[in-house]
Specification:
- Helix content is about 60%, strand content about 10%.
- Strands 6-7-8-3-9-10 form a six-stranded mixed beta sheet, sandwiched between helices.
Amino acid sequence: MNAPAQVAAPPRTADRSADKRPVRALTGLLPFVRPYRGRIALAGLFLVLAALTTLAFPVALKALIDHGLVASDPGARVMALRGYFLALFAVGAALGIFSAARFYAVTWLGERITADLRNAVYRHVLRQSPEFFETTRTGEVLSRLTTDTTLVQTVVGSSLSMGLRNTVMGVGALLALIVTNPYVMTQVLGILVLVVLPSLYFGRRVRKLSRASQDRVADSSAIAAEVLAAIPVVQGFVQEPREAARFDAATESAFETARRRTRVRAVLVAFIISATFGALLWGLYQGTQAVIRGDISAGHLGQTVVFVIILVSSVAVLSEVYGDLLRAAGATERLMELLAAQSPVADPPQPRALPPTQGGSAVQLRAVTFHYPSRPQTAALADFDLTVRPGETVALVGPSGAGKSTVLQLLLRFYDTERGTITLDGVPVHETSLAALRSRIGIVPQDSMVFSTSALENIRYGRPDATNEEVFAAARAAFADEFIRALPEGYASFLGERGVRLSGGQRQRISIARAILKNPPLLLLDEATSALDAESERMVQAALEAAMKDRSTLVIAHRLATVLRADRIVVMEAGRIVDQGTHAELVAGGGLYARLAAMQFDAPRA
């Protein structure tokens, strides 16, 4: 018996206690950073060299002023100036080389780490069960894959490098000022400590607003993804103005949150720069007084001025970088929430192998009870028992909501049962791997999915290693070959997003060809002919009957004409089996199936 499925917490309702940890959320990126330790060390080396080269400039300038401008002999002065200017040029050239190397190394790291992060999140989301998507909107996932990873890329590939470089420069300039002007800089440092405390308060607010801003952007993305996927319905009901207004409201909410974040961040930047600049001006004033008194030289003052400029500019850049880090911390949290989401359906620690089959798979459901996570009060299946013998075709019929599609979803293990067991060829489905289980099952869903690629690749999706001839044979079996060859480029024709260039019946035949190409021992047909006209239905029904040979088949159909030749018809109602038998037996029995058959076959004709 399977354990009750645990519902994965939706990312949007995740614990927000992390909001109290400012930039610590960025530690979630460490697993993606570790593989590139060598490149990070190289980038760090170039970063330090560029920073130290910048710090060498004031020292060279001091030498120029104190020694290159004081020589009494004009000729000696010219030669000295040339030497010192050459030294300054060497410093500038080294700075250019080291900065370019740092830029390339850091940008490469940003692009690579972001690509790895995006791939990891996407792979993880693909492994989630349908239960995950009952609480998480697709548009929100797309927002995290694009907007949030772009923020992380900005920080890893740019802001973090700038922050580290300016930290080295700022600390170096500060130490140089302390060494050269210890008394004055002791006073300045005391003032700077008072700058840090308010900055921490404002920084926390910026981070919370950054997280909220990303959530609002995700809301608008989710609305757009949902509406664009249903554009025929929106236009058919003339709801374009309403949907545009709804999207406007979402984007305005995102803008308002971003405006508040920007306002707080602007106050933070203004405060840090103004307070730091004021403190350093105080130190510079003391330096000028020292020159007047003759305590230090003009070159010493010039060096101090450049160090002050470096320190002030470093603090200014760091205040900007801090804001970027806060935004990236919020984005990283959202991405880590996706990566932390655990699917309740997973491979067992030691999967059992499925035995070989001949003539189809054997399926058995015993005392199965299941509730959908979104409908915990209503049982989709209740003490449900069903056996499908190898090679048997079993049809599931009944009113909507009877639980027919639930049987197929549990067989595919999109969900786990709460009670009871399901076996495929004698092996409980939760004891084998998902790949092994699903590779034995072919499915033709009610809503056929056609991908934005060619007809050839859409059919080959059923078995990627199939040859072109095998694809053509599957298309002929599904009566799709004729209309595909009539397309402008035949099998190479692009079918458009979700197959918009095809009719509903044509999309369904593409889906049937895909299942035939897979050639599984168990075939699941969920209203496989519902989108076909009468002529196409006859052709596809004949193709499906041929495809059903030598394999087990479960057929769901509301149109009873498609299940008349099933070996057994199972009648379901409210998650239970109420009757079963052949068409003739069930009609003679006068139960639910007989009433359904009477409504469909004996309906008055116009």
